[in-house]
Write a structure and sequence with these properties.
Number of helices: 10
Radius of gyration: 25 Å
Oligomer: single chain
Distance between the termini: 39 Å
Order of helices and strands: EEHEHEEEEEHHEHEHHEHEHEEHE
Strand order of the largest sheet: 11-10-9-12-13
Length: about 300
């Protein structure tokens, strides 16, 4: 807010003109953006005050009365130690709490309902000792997507399920065949014979582990329109696709919706058909003998 917008300011409150807010709304409207109003509580009080309730209702009433828009707009408060709380306003002007706030940078921080009040399950006792209870609780709150469930994706999904992730979405349109059996986790000959979907086989196996987890099986590639809304709802996505189109879509998703993408891949250079590979001590010590390398960063 520019200095000129403040009518009165003190250590415990302020009064300001809504003209800059209205100008922000007019800039956001053509781009289908929402506006978030953020203010601080220097004393560390992480709740919306009665004064906030009155001021925000009057302010957001401007948004819905003057602009023909039904999208929600946001209000956030912050404290000196970096904690955040938020809520959303719709046309009925009744505030709804924000389920999760993601702070993304060199480190990721998550604020959600129940933070620091729950206790990690006994099944993750050793994990808590190694990485702390809060990281385990964070994992239980995140909605994590795995795009493509082949050799890499199935391994990632299996590991995520075993470290306490409770909300997992699997994206893949492919069926299991015989060539998958040596690398696709949980796949069997019966699955290949029946041409079962990878997301179904992997989803059923993860559910069978016995840990509390919900698995959404989405039989579409990440670039398919049918997968768009589910991808946008993820807090973190593991990209395990092996084509540039899929990576490009995930890259755009990260830029437009600020969803963190962890891109994974493995590239193995096969020998030519009919050729044989001989490994000797000399070839193994050579810098050119690198049959497998990481793709990407």
């Amino acid at each position: 807010m520019p200095e000129s917008a403040f009518i009165k300011r003190s250590p415990v409150g302020f009064t300001w003109s809504t003209a800059p807010f209205y100008q922000a709304l007019k800039r956001a409207e053509p781009q289908n953006f929402a506006v978030a109003v953020i203010h601080s509580h220097p004393a560390g009080y992480l709740r919306f005050s009665s004064a906030d309730d009155i001021a925000e209702k009057e302010m957001f009433e401007i948004a819905f009365n003057r602009l023909d828009s039904g999208r929600p707009h946001l209000s956030l408060i912050m404290t000196p130690d970096g904690r955040l709380a938020g809520r959303a306003y719709g046309p009925n002007l009744k505030p709804r709490p924000v389920d999760m706030i993601r702070v993304l940078g060199c480190r990721w921080r998550f604020t959600y309902s129940g933070v620091k009040t729950e206790t990690a399950r006994q099944a993750f006792d050793r994990q808590v000792r190694a990485f702390g209870q809060q990281s385990t609780l964070d994992l239980s709150q995140l909605r994590i997507g795995v795009v493509e469930c082949g050799g890499t994706g199935s391994a990632v999904a299996a590991l995520l399920a075993r470290i306490g992730v409770r909300h997992l979405a699997l994206f893949d349109t492919d069926f299991i065949d015989e060539t998958n059996l040596n690398r696709l986790h949980y796949s069997t000959r019966t699955d290949a014979n029946l041409r079962r979907l990878k997301v179904d086989v992997l989803g059923e196996a993860i559910a069978g582990i016995g840990l509390p987890i919900s698995v959404a099986r989405i039989p579409h590639h990440g670039e398919d329109i049918e997968a768009r809304d589910a991808l946008k709802s993820c807090d973190v996505i593991f990209g395990c696709t092996d084509d540039h189109l899929g990576r490009n879509v995930l890259n755009r998703l990260a830029h437009f919706y600020f969803v963190p993408i962890i891109d994974l891949g493995l590239l193995i250079d096969p020998v030519a058909a009919g050729a044989t590979m001989r490994l000797t001590d000399e070839s193994l010590s050579s810098s050119q003998a690198a049959p497998a390398r990481c793709a990407g960063d």
